[in-house]
Amino acid sequence: MPHSWNKGFTKETHPSILKISKTMKERKIDNFKKWRERMKLLGKIPSTYPVFAKNGDLAELIGVVLGDGHIRKFSRTEELSIFANSQDRGFIKRYSFLMESIFGKKPTLTQHGRGNCTRIRLYQKKIQTRLDIPYSPRIDLRISIPSWILDRKEYIVRYLRGLYEAEGSFCIHKGTYTYKLLFSNKNISMLNNVYKLLKMLGFSPHRSTNQIQLSRKKEVYEALELLHFRKY
User: Fold this and answer.
1) Among residues 90, 185, 216, 226, which is most buried (max CB within 10 A)?
2) 178 lies in which domain range?
3) pLDDT, tens only, 121-135
4) Would 130 be classed as within a structural domain?
5) What's the rounded Cα separation, in Å, for the pair 198 and 87?
6) Model-level pTM?
């Protein structure tokens, strides 16, 4: 069976389709308007996008998006992606489920690039404002912790879980009795946030270049249990 002519392309990467798209945009032609209005009437496309319920699931999703996520703006919609190791089926299943339960829409799973990376992705309007996360890239931006997350320990824990599932690692070197729970990121404000939250939870973190570390064996295992780290 022959492959589809547009396999592997998007509107932005296929030269012919990109030209048509630009021409229609310049002439302000919207050939999907009638279809969208009909789908809204049928309830298949949302006509409004209410604020998300502030709960633990949202706190964790915000955390994982800040760590391994991407928000991109288009002319009529926005894209949310979370990138995962293709072998980590538990991670993929968990965050596909969280995205679907919060957005009311099932994300698509695609192979990203030529590496061992799976992209969990959906398109919808007003993603950035409802998640209250800056558009990507965020490396040099100042990231604030939402005030509603700071109000409850449960939300702090879930927020940290999302961050650690995305950018955390746990290692043991028995020869030197070394135990490490690490959070790595190049954004300075993100490192400061994780350090602050761990202190609020009673831990004793310390900073190194692009990392926050827990190094006391007891605290490492307490944090692993509290965050349910890598438990799917």
Assistant:
1) 185
2) 147-227
3) 999 999 999 999 999
4) no
5) 29
6) 0.81
